[in-house]
Every structure is written in C-alpha cells, then in structure tokens.
Amino acid sequence: MLKKILICILLAAFASPLAAADKPADTTQFVYEKLKSDKKLLVAENLQLTDSEAKNFWPLYERYQSELFLLRMRTLQLVKDYESTYQNMTDSIAKRILDEALEIETLRLKLITTYLLQFRAVLPETKVARYYQIENKINALLYHELAIRIPLMATEKKQH
Confidence band (pLDDT; 50, 70, 90) for 16? Predict the structure, then answer.
C-alpha cells in the first residue's frame, strides 16, 4: 500500500507542468484530497494510536503536513524551473537551482526537528520513531522517483 500511495503522490505532486495544466482545478484538488486521506490512513494503520494519543497527534499531524506540503510545492517549482532551463543551463542558473535545493533541504530538516519535539510531547518514543520512519520512506521514494526522472545537468555548453 505504501508504494502505491507514494507513486500516486509523486504523480500528483511532481507531474510535468504540461500534464498539470491539462487537468481541471477541481480534479487536481480531488486527487490531492484522496492522496492526503490515503496517507493519513497509512499512518493510522501503522501507528495504532490510543484514543488519547490520537486526540493530540492528529491536529499536530495536520499542521506538519501543511508545512511539509509547502516545501514539496517549492520543490515542484524548482523542478519546473530546472525543466525550463535544462537545455540552456548557465553557471548562474545552476548556482540558483543548487542554492534553492539546499535551502529547501535546510528548511525540511528544520521542520522535522521542530515537529519532533512536539510529536515527542504527545506520543511514546517508539511511535514517534515509527512515524518518522513512515515519513522518511515516503521522502526517500519521492526523491528516488525525482532522481530517475530528472536528467543530470550538462557540464559543458553545446556548441552550435
């Protein structure tokens, strides 16, 4: 189930800009909501929260997911920028793309660390660790899929 959800998330969030432009906004929103609920179901099935834990965890989870979504959208924009400049890459564009990628990763690590303290306040450590394992698996698969889809940057300019 995890791999199915991850592939769907990837296709929805990191599809090519042309494919996204062809979809009506309401369909895209529906797909996003479905994926969001599937991920939440995956987390719920794997954490087996007590009623007390669930009461405190889910609002925190929703806030975390909202902030994580913003970083993923920023990553999507970066991928789109790369796609649009790939054929005509310059040193300055490459620097801007790399700097933005590192900034996104820095913010992601800060977000993870900030929420770790909050999750630890509402769940036992084993459940916090399990939740972070789920998030790490999702992130690793997303990065893997991006790595497959995004070609390496050329190091030499083509001569015409």
Answer: very low
Q: Is the pLDDT of residue 23 over 80?
A: no
Phi, psi angle pair for 156, to nearest 5°: -125, 140
C-alpha closest to that of 4 among 48, 40, 39, 53: 39
Domain that residue 89 falls in:
2-149
CA 148 to chain centre: 16
More confident residue, 154 or 116: 116
* Separation of alpha carbons 49 and 123, rounded Å: 9
- Tell me whether residue 10 is in a domain: yes
How many separate domains does the chain show? 1
Q: Mean pLDDT across the stretch 48-69?
A: 96
- Classify residue 160: in a domain, yes or no: no
